[in-house]
Amino acid sequence: MPTVTATLKRKGPVHKTEAALARAHTGRKLKFTLPGPMTIIDTIADEHYGDRIAMAMRFAELLNEEALELQALGIDVIQFDEPAFNVYMDEVKEWGIPALHRACQGLTCKTAVHICYGYGIKANIEWKASLGSEWRQYEEIFPALAGSRIDQVSLECINSRVPTSLLALLEGKDVLLGAIDVASDTVETPEEVAATLRRALHVVPVERLQACTNCGMAPLDRRVANGKLEALAAGAALVRKELGRDR
Fold this sequence. Notes:
It is a single chain. By secondary structure, the protein is α/β, with parallel strands linked by helices. The chain is built from 8 helices and 8 strands. The protein has helices at 16-24, 37-41, 52-72, 89-103, 122-129, 138-146, 190-200, 222-242; strands at 3-4, 31-35, 45-46, 77-81, 110-114, 152-156, 174-178, 209-212. It has a 6-stranded parallel β-sheet. A two-stranded parallel ribbon has the order 1-3. Strand 7 (174-178), helix 7 and strand 8 (209-212) form a beta-alpha-beta unit. Helix 3 (52-72) runs parallel beside helix 4, helix 4 packs parallel to helix 6 (138-146) and helix 7 (190-200) crosses helix 8 (222-242). The longest helix is centred in the first third of the chain and has 21 residues, at 52-72. The chain starts with a strand and ends in a 5-residue tail after the last helix.
């Protein structure tokens, strides 16, 4: 396990090259993701700070430096991935969200946080199997996220047991709705994507809803990932057409 043994410092830009390359190849809006402070400290050992919150805040400061540079390169949305937000419920409200605020300090682009139940490893699979017919952890943290300065919340919905009704607790936030299962090689149909979006529209205003994937698709075969992204776009187009917003 990586271990912090001295004061954390940032030697230089981490993602400058790929962000600049991506920006040079598209005129469309571009999102970049960074790990969130709580999730970072949950995956490393501390032999220096002796205080998880202090270490998280230092990581938040360094993430902020990176985020500000990404914004200057023309990134439109910066997302912080925080799967740990489904584990430490009290800590999310006490210092997890303040750490995100520190990571976002000075940003004028859109900011997002992605939370999920985790994929792939045996421990996560077993944990999810123990959660019962409804996964209601979000109920504890959504009100705090709704009151935060973060613009968008990304979460998984398709093939999960997250009750759609909980999305109403994110009032005022853009909801990036996971309508693609990243734990399966089966490519969704556009209608399956559309059905997931329609359920969310009962509690999320249409102008606040965006189609998204449950999580990242890096482990998937490229052809499968491309197929899933095509289905995501086609499913969102179906719903936009139904709502008369496809013009």
